[in-house]
Amino acid sequence: MNKKNFKVITINGLSGLLLIIILVSLVLSCLIAVPIWAIIESWNFIVYDYFGGPSITVLHASLIYTVIILSIYLFLSNYVSVQFAESENIDDTDIELLLGNLSDKEEDKEEDKEEDKK
Q: What is the CA radius of gyration of the chain?
């Protein structure tokens, strides 16, 4: 049986704990702070400078980043699917029927309001 030499990382005292804290903060800053900063800078450069729109803050950028991450998660996990299909041809009679139904509902609402007033 071959024995493989494994290297074990040991945490010795306060210096090892400090190293772990630094590594975790670097990973979090790369996954959270840098994309939020990129969103702020790109939004303010494009929308605020060129189009005269509103500028955004860290809170706004973090909400945008959250929406982006959740959207990616939903689309990759197949909870949401987008499909394109051909639409049916609608005749003029179908459109008149739909508009007639809508106008009937509006008339019913107006009659109900008038009865409530009485």
A: 30
Reported as a single tens digit per residue, the pLDDT across 4-20 is: 777 777 777 888 888 88
What single-letter DSSP state applies at residue 52? -
Task: Round to whole Å and give the CA distance between 27 and 33.
Answer: 10
Tens digits of per-residue pLDDT, 51-60? 999 999 999 9
CB 46 within 8 A of CB 56: no
In the block, residue with structure tokens 């609608």: 90
Closest C-alpha among 65, 33, 61 to residue 48: 61
**Predicted structure pTM score:** 0.52
| Count of positions (residues) in the chain | 118
Nearest-angstrom CA–CA distance, 102 and 108: 10
